[in-house]
User: Which sequence fits this backbone?
């Protein structure tokens, strides 16, 4: 029976390449109108998962549902999805207008009608003034917007994005991710976005799905993942957490909730400062504990410079008891 709350459902989906298990029996429900980021290190299975949703890779086992319909055996064109590739894959000999209108041309839409529709989508991505230019006459960020307009013109039920920001410089990456979030909200369709960048996923996602070794390790709102990582892998991969072991098992403590103090100030570990990084509003102090753990504190710059530390100094990393987060063994 169709469940109208979800745009995409993965039910025990597995992908094998010969004897290699790339995706191992994963299940996931993505609610309607969600910006979902698949996040994880290289080789974790995130791009394979995206390509199975698109229909560019066949599933070895399990089912994929889109809007309640089992699409596992359907070709990409019949799934109601569109995919935006990392390389953008624009036709170099076509104008931006004709690139965006291309899929409508393949469907037999008359030139006047398809060009009018293409101009609407160029305007949507703020590229109306570039309709007559060739892709080579555009910057990387502009090319990406053209590719986005081309993917959206068929009004897909789900837009799939494979590392769409990886080729952009850091400043432009922030601007374009703001545009992606704006478009997703305005269009009200589900975006599924593959990335290896924690910052990107945190900024964009309503649902962040962290993968490792072909498994989904945690899926939740980014704040829930950041505040309550379920395992040492998640805590370390999301970043800005110290993973330690106490008498009860592994724990995580956010680096921005730690400071340099003394043993009487609260829970603590002793060690030696190994690096100091000025980051503007904050200073990152990296330490090696006496037990060999790498830890750090993110300290407000004014606080740090009242009593600065240098590499080689002995130091005590301290935090408040309420900031201790217990982790599952992994």
Assistant:
């Amino acid at each position: 029976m169709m469940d109208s709350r979800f745009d995409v459902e993965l039910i025990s989906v597995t992908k094998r390449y010969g004897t290699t298990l790339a995706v191992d029996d994963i299940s996931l429900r993505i609610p309607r109108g969600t910006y979902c980021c698949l996040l994880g290190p290289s080789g974790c299975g995130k791009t394979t998962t995206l390509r199975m949703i698109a229909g560019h890779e066949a599933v070895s086992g399990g089912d994929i549902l889109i809007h309640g319909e089992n699409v596992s055996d359907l070709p990409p064109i019949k799934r109601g999805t569109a995919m935006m590739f990392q390389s953008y894959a624009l036709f170099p000999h076509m104008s931006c207008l004709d690139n965006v209108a291309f899929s409508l041309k393949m469907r037999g839409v008359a030139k006047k009608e398809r060009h009018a529709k293409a101009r609407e989508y160029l305007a949507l991505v703020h590229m109306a003034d570039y309709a007559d230019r060739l892709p080579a006459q555009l910057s990387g960020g502009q090319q990406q917007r053209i590719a986005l307009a081309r993917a959206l013109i068929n009004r897909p039920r789900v837009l799939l994005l494979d590392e769409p920001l990886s080729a952009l410089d850091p400043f432009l990456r922030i601007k374009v991710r703001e545009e992606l979030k704006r478009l997703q909200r305005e269009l009200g369709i589900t975006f599924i976005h593959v990335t290896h960048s924690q910052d990107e996923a945190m900024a964009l996602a309503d649902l962040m799905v962290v993968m490792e070794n072909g498994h989904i390790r945690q899926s939740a709102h980014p704040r829930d993942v950041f505040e309550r990582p379920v395992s040492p892998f998640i805590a370390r991969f999301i970043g800005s957490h110290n993973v330690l072991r106490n008498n009860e098992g592994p724990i995580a403590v956010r680096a921005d909730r730690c400071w340099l103090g003394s043993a009487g100030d609260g829970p603590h570990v002793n060690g030696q400062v190994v690096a100091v990084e000025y980051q503007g509003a904050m200073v990152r102090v990296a330490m090696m504990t006496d037990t060999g753990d790498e830890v750090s504190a993110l300290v407000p710059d004014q606080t740090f410079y009242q009593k600065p530390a240098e590499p080689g100094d002995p130091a005590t990393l301290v935090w408040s008891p309420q900031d201790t987060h217990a982790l599952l063994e992994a």
